[in-house]
Amino acid sequence: MATKLQYDCFKEAYDREVKRHERLVERCKIYLALVTLYFGLQGVSVDKIIPRIQGHGEIVIFYLVGLSCFFTALLLIVRALGIYKYVYPMDLRRVIGNMGSSPPSDESFLKHRIAELTAAFHANLNVDEKRWRLLRYATWGMVVGIFFQLVVFFYLPFVEPNKPLEIMIDASSSDKTNEDSDASEVEEECPQPQSDYGQEMRELVQSYERQQQQDQTQQQQQEQRSQVPQQQQ
Q1: 34: which of 23, 26, 99, 156 is 20 to 30 A away, CA to CA?
Q2: What's the pTM value of the predicted model, to 2 decimals?
């Protein structure tokens, strides 16, 4: 026959499952708060991150994978927080309705209550196991998402924001125009010499050669003049 000690053992197992259910619900709320905080931060910083990672395919892929992981985790958490059917061990009206004309003995009453606790325990255990699996997958989703987001934040200081093609073309054309105007200003400030330096040097060498020829001619004439008196003597 069922005893009070046996009933207490089954009741303790059922109470542990109830406390586990409460812990799972609290964990769902914490995960939901974390994911909500993440998407809130992304909404604030997305206008600063997107322009910096445009044109960098690997970083864009990491960023999108991180977002997808957190979005998947959000769906799993919401699913885990869903309303599930739980079984309570005693329906008081049903218990009273089954008593009949005479009250049951304590052993018979405890026997039926132990059977009800066992059925409720296993029914609620299956529901909590499903909730636990969803939270486990959500945990892995958040871990993978955090990893890819850390990779993106690690590479952000090393990438340069890309500008649209039209802006780049306009900027290059304006830079070229500015360079041309600067070059013209430099030419006006520092005018180029009209004559070629090589031509000037050649002319200078030719003048020195002519001067040397004239000196040689004068020296020969002086020698001839000095030789005439000697021949007359």
Answers
A1: 156
A2: 0.60
